[in-house]
Amino acid sequence: MLKLFKDRNFFTLWLGEFVSVIGDHISMIAFPFLVLQLTGSPAFTAFVFAVQGLPRAVLMLVGGAVVDRSSPRNVMLITNLLRCLLVFLLAYLIFTNQISLPVIFVIALAFGLADAFFYPAATSVVPSVVKKDDLKAGNAIMQGSIWVGVILGPAIAGFVIAGEVTTMGHDTGLNAATFESNRAGFARAFFLDGLTFAFSFLTLLFVRTRSLKDEDADQDAANKTSMFAEVKQAVKWVWSVPAIRLGFIGVAVLEFFFQTPIFVGLPALTKYRFLEPAYVYGLIVAAYGAGALVGAVTAGYVNWPTRENLVRTMFFIFIGSGASIGLIVLYEPYWFAMALFLVFGCMDSYIWVHFTTFVQQSTPEAQMGRVMSIFMFMSVGLIPIASVVMGLAFEWNLELALIIASSVIVLSCLVMALHPDSKRVPALVDDDALVPDGE
What structural domains and CATH numbers belong to the chain? Predict the structure, then answer.
């Protein structure tokens, strides 16, 4: 993996995304607690995430087609600039005390619109920078960087929001921190996130990528009649490959019942159980990040499992990840949650690097953006629905809803692991020569 850092293109791409992902995880701590402290409602927090996820879900497949028609780098440049401006606006409104829930909904909607194009671009850019033989190492480095961000981001967020290193609330007595006591800290956190987007934008200006179109791309373009036809072609290919089809469906079920509990349910749970919830939540998330960093780096060096057993192994690992949510509810100490997340963060990240590489190596390169947009759609496209449904469930009974979500993940992943399609894998795509696209 270390030899990739000698490649100027890859190093520049990595550096910008590494800094940006730290900012993402600062906001990941700040955003749910901003809404929770403004409203006191887990449901409203979930609704904001639903609004952000709606345009992302509706337009993500179109975003993948746009990536294939242009390039991942160009799409990332535009969307990073837009997201930078949105986060700066949010920081300004909080700092001047002009923030309100309707404004947060509008900004979340706009942010989700940018994400619809950024996500397929970000998951397609590594194959345009490194050779196919280096894909696993490149993915391991990029995934590892994400998890370093998960470790550093929450720690930085806690300091930036609080303005000091503390495990206690800002108010006197036994009252936990309020929106007003944290308002300046929230503004600082989002402003810092905006700076990381700006840095990522600047580094992308110096990244040169290669075209992923094959030698018949010009003829294919002449035969294409619409963007819808391009998306349909990619969906048809995904559906025709049993292991990838099953993997994508299983990931959709997993993320439907996993994302909202982690980003809405767990913050609400820490809010009810602990005096300084952002601090505890940050520790738990950082533990997951520490484990995931180890898993991502290990994946770059270890080849297990084989392609034939990869999808089945992935779902067996996800059984444990799903079970961890229910176990956290049943046993309250946060060190226990940290220990679980450390272990399953390592396992999740390890297998995710292998599965992402498996999909990229199996996909015709001219369809890379669209196939990866389908992958991201299955990962996050259903989150708006999940946020609404589970947000209401959290209002009804937070702990029981988390246990039910955990049980659904365990059972569904067990079914997917035992399904015969998990071993029906495609052949590797030949590593066709990549033609420079002049970027």
Answer: 2-423 (1.20.1250.20)
- Amino acid identity of 49? F
3-class DSSP assignment, residue 311: helix
Six token digits for residue 13: 């791409």
d(CA 323, CA 345): 13
CA distance 121 to 232: 18
The pTM (predicted TM-score) of the whole model is 0.77
Q: For residues 387-420, b (16+ Cβ closer than 10 Å) or e, as one string?
A: bbbbbebbeeebeebbbbbbebbbebbeebbebe
Closest CA to 190 of 295, 84, 291, 111: 84
Q: How far apart are CA 10 and CA 212, in angstroms?
A: 16
How far is residue 255's CA from residue 374's CA, in Å, rounded to a whole number?
14
Structure tokens at 90: 């949010």
For residue 41, give every residue at least 6 positions away whose Cβ sits within 8 Å of its Cβ, in sequence order, or none: 395
Count of CB atoms within 10 A of residue 226's CB?
9
From the CB of residue 384, how many other CB atoms can be counted at a distance below 10 Å?
23
Phi, psi of 31, deg, nearest 5: -65, -50
> Which are the contacts of 433, defined by CB distance < 8 A and separation ≥ 6?
none
For residue 281, give every residue at least 6 positions away whose Cβ sits within 8 Å of its Cβ, in sequence order, or none: 29, 33, 154, 266, 267, 270
- CB 164 within 8 Å of CB 279: no
- Torsion, Cα 192 81 367 364, to 10 degrees, reads -50
Cis status, amide bond into 305, omega within 30 of 0: yes
> Phi, psi at residue 210, to the nearest 5°?
-115, 155
φ, ψ dihedrals at 165, nearest 5°: -85, 115
Which sign does the torsion angle of CA 24, 27, 28, 29 carry? positive
- Full pLDDT tens readout for the chain, 439 residues: 788 888 998 999 999 999 999 998 888 788 888 988 888 888 888 888 888 888 888 888 888 888 888 889 999 999 999 999 999 999 999 999 999 999 999 999 998 899 889 988 998 899 889 888 888 899 989 988 888 888 888 778 877 887 655 444 444 333 456 788 788 989 999 999 999 999 999 999 999 888 766 544 444 554 555 788 888 899 999 999 999 999 999 999 999 999 889 988 998 898 888 877 777 888 898 899 899 999 999 998 888 899 999 999 999 999 999 999 999 999 989 899 999 999 999 999 999 999 999 998 899 888 888 998 899 888 888 888 888 889 889 989 999 999 999 999 999 999 999 999 999 988 776 544 333 343 4
Question: What CA–CA distance (Å, rounded) separates 377 from 196?
Answer: 25
Question: Are 281 and 270 spatial neighbours (Cβ–Cβ below 8 Å)?
Answer: yes
Q: What is the token pair recorded at 315?
A: 């779902």
